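Sample 3 of the quickstart, ligand magnesium ion:
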Amino acid sequence: MVSDREKSRECIIIIPNMRIGYGWDSHAFQDGVPLKIGGLLIPHPQGLAGHSDGDVLLHAITDALLGAVAAGDIGTFFPPTDPQWKGADSALFLSAAMDAVEKAGFQIANVDTTLVLAAPKISPIAKDLQYNVARLLGVASSQVSIKAKTPEGLDQDHVAIAHAVVLLDKNADQKKLDLAAAALETQSLIDETVENVVSNVPVNREKISRSRS
Ligand code: MG
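Result:
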C-alpha cells in the first residue's frame, strides 16, 4: 500500500512546471461552404468540409491544448456523431480546451502552428490570423505563431492540414498550491527526522557505552 504521504510526494515530483502538447488535423475543400481558418472567414471559392465549421487550425490547437494536460482529444468532448455540434463554431471547442488547461493548473506560454494548403495564400492574412487566434486564446499576439506551407509533392491540393504545438506553464494559483504543499512536506520531513533521532537516542547511548567498554 502506498501511504498518503508517499502519494503526496509523488504528486509533487510528477507534476512538472511546464507541459507540451501537439495537435494535427485535416479537412477537405468543398464547394458551397464558407472558408473559416483561425476563427476568421476568408474569401475563397471553397470552404472546408466538416461536421462543425471545419476550422482546421482551431481543431489542431484544441487537440494540442487537450494533449498537453492529457485530457483526451476534441472527439472526446465533441463527438462528430452528436448533432448538436453540426456547423458549430470551433471557438467553442477551443474554449473547452482552455477550461481543461486552467482546471489542470496551467496557462499558455506559447503556441506554434503550421498550415499546409495549396490555396488561399496565408502570408497576406497571417497577421490577422495571429491576432485572432491570440484573442480567442486570451494571450498576446507574440505568444502565437502562424506559419504556412504549400503541400508540394504531396498531391494534396484538395486538403487543408494544420499542425500545432503548445507549451504550457503552471498558473499563479497552482504555483501557490505547490508552494504550500512543499512547505507542508518539508515540515513533515523535519518532524519525521526529529522523531527518528529522538527514538534512536537510547540505542545510540547503548552503542556508545558498548564501544567504551
Ligand atoms: Mg477537424
